[in-house]
Design brief:
single chain; 348 residues; mainly beta; Thrombin, subunit H; Jelly Rolls; 2 domains; six-stranded antiparallel β-barrel; six-stranded antiparallel barrel; 2 helices; 7% helix; elongated; disordered N terminus
Length: 348
Amino acid sequence: MIFGTISSAQSVRVDVGQGRQGQGIMVSDRNSCYLLLPAHVAGSSPFVTLTSEAPVRIGQAVVNRPFWTELGERGAPVRGLDLAIGAVRGDIASACTEPLSQVIPARIGLGLSGTLITIGRDGRPDGVQMTIVNTSYLTFEAKVTTPGAEMFPGRSGSFLFIDNRPAGMVIRAPNEGDSATFVRIEEILINAERWIGDQGAIFTSGIETASVQQSSGIAARLVSSSEPPISPEFPPELTLSPDGAFVTAPSRPLTLVYEILGDSPAISRVIVTSNPASPYGIPRDIAIQVDSTPNRTRPRAFWAGRMAQDGRADSGARSQATKARWVAITFKNAWAPGSISITQVLFE
């Protein structure tokens, strides 16, 4: 809950790739988590990366654009509803606690003030005070009243909260200025509720899960990543696939947590690979912990070592498998500064 006072509808940062970002909120419905964000923020990308407020959780959303829009110059919507809906997956879904049916709209009126919430890359929420200065049937305009604060395009998708309730979502924020245009929360809810009620379950059921049955290893599921990818096309789930790579620019040690699937989960070997011929760096020092308790309360060391410069780190096969429901792999550093890639994590 933001600042301990704002609605539990979870505000999140949205990264689209190529330096583009915005904001949105997550809501739940029938055990699924959905992202509400402006269609122009998502653009044409099928995936976006999500970052929650601290404690930071990382995830991804598969975006659907079910609402009619008319696009103007540079692909910006000029008519219709600037709204997209994403099906959320990954660790961030654990922060999705507000049922869509229980979102209570704020009262909107001239002179009413609230807090605009924007989530930074580090998970810190930035609260800006704004006052409504103009209203219409579908939208309203609000002006910044926090001294020194200003609007900018990266605030698109941020929600204004009045008396702890969402009032609207930023759909236009100038490069420099002290005001923004919002689509009203009532308009968002009536359309989101109808689409999610009619199509949400079908859409989410058609999305592949993060579990991957490896062709030459043990089936596992990515639980969490402590760092986001540099772009949505390089998600951490790709570490469980022989194709693609997880690419990230860690600001601190990177930890990936996996769940080993099966009735009697155990492993005897872990192999981590990276491609030294790629334009990204490769990890260096690695530590692996395992845990067999239901709630990950007793981690214990499994292996620690260094990835060779050919991009391979191998714990070696143990003569007897170790019980392990959870495996946490921490990449402490890299051979060179900058972004790193991890092409595959294989459990045997």
